[in-house]
Amino acid sequence: MLFLSKTRALAFAAALVLLLAACVPLSLASRGAHAASFCVVIDAGHGGVDAGVLGVRSEVRESDLNLQLARLLRERFARAGFCTVLTRTGAGGLYGLPTPGYKKRDMQRRKEIIESASPNLVLSVHQNFFPADPARRGGQVFYRLHSREGEALAASIQQQLNALWGTSLSALAGDYFMLNCTPYLSVIVECGFLSNAQDEAALTDAAFRSKLADAVFAGALAYFA
Ligand SMILES: [Zn+2]
User: Fold this and answer.
1) Structural domain of residue 73, as residue ranges?
2) How many domains does the chain have?
């Protein structure tokens, strides 16, 4: 089982950044992109009146955990020289007023932000909830159906999450708006299960969230390298 300590993960990330720097011009040129630097959109799911799911014991809001993790991811990608865009930067949603149709407006706004960024990568951050089986644990990564790039990226992040959580889950194809709303390489990272008390305790711990962000970041970089 591959487990990277924080120091090793950072050293690993630094080595991958050097590799990435060598690969980026080629991959951008081959995709016809005109961006000066590699760009990642980090999407913190939910927000505002839409809390997402709630922790089974603490009732922690998924929307808050997603934002905290999105900020940690932004730090890591920015430090590595990426251009970073967050779909939301605060606790509020992206829908304006919480009047009927707010969820649709919120999702539409996320799509517009991704389109205007023309990113090389979209990471949508969420937390899982499966009350039918409270024993279910760990991170779960989804990719767009029939996207081989997405599948490879998701598998790379999944490998890091499995190492962190001690699980052996596989990345899954999913038919979700955030995967399908633009043509850009996109994955949904369900970081852990808020329906599982052990996962919930880990996710509400700042030190563990930092490790989670390291794992997602390392998985993404390993894919590009
Ligand atoms: Zn969610």
Assistant:
1) 37-96+109-224
2) 1
